[in-house]
Fold:
Amino acid sequence: MIRWALWLLGGLLLGGIVHLGSVLLLPRTATQDAFTRLSASAPVNSMVPMPAATPDEAVLPFMDPAFATSVCRYDLADGPLTLRVPVSQAYTSVSFYTRNGVAFYAINDRAAGRRVIELDLMTTQQRAALPEDEEVTAADRLIVESPTPAGLILVRAFGPEPGLMPMARRALSSAQCKQQG
Structure:
C-alpha cells in the first residue's frame, strides 16, 4: 500500500513539473504573438487604426468591440519617440508593451488631466543622455522608459454607444507616434 502511494506521489510530482515547465515555455515558443501579427499591417513608428473587432474576427485576442483601437509598433533604435493622443469625450487609454507582450506602463485621460496625452518614450540609455534642464519639470514633460528597444503602444477610445463610435475613431485618427527630430 505504501509502495502504491509513493508511485502515485511520484507521478503527481512529475506531472506537476512537466505541466509547469510547458506553461512557462509555451509563450516563448509561440510564433504568432501580437507583435508578429501586427508587423504586416503596422509600419514602425507610426499610428495605425485597427479594424473593428467582430465575434468572428479580431486582429488581437480579447478586443472589445466597444473600443476604437489604434496601435503603434515602435522601435527606439534610432532615437526616442513622441506620442500625442487627443482624448475622446468618454474614455481614452494608452498602454505600452514590450516586444514579448509584457505591459510596462499605462495612462488614461483622467490620470493625464489634459485634453491631450503627450509623452516621450525612450530607453534608459536615451534618458540618461538627456541634458539636465532645470526649467523643464516632470509636470511639463512626461517621460516613459521602455525596458526594450521595440514594442507596441495600444491606444483605445471608448464608444459608449454604437452611434458614438465614429467620435471615438475620429479622436484616435489624429493620434501621432513619431520619432523625435
Notes: The chain has two domains: 1-30, 34-179. The first strand starts at residue 47 and ends at 49.
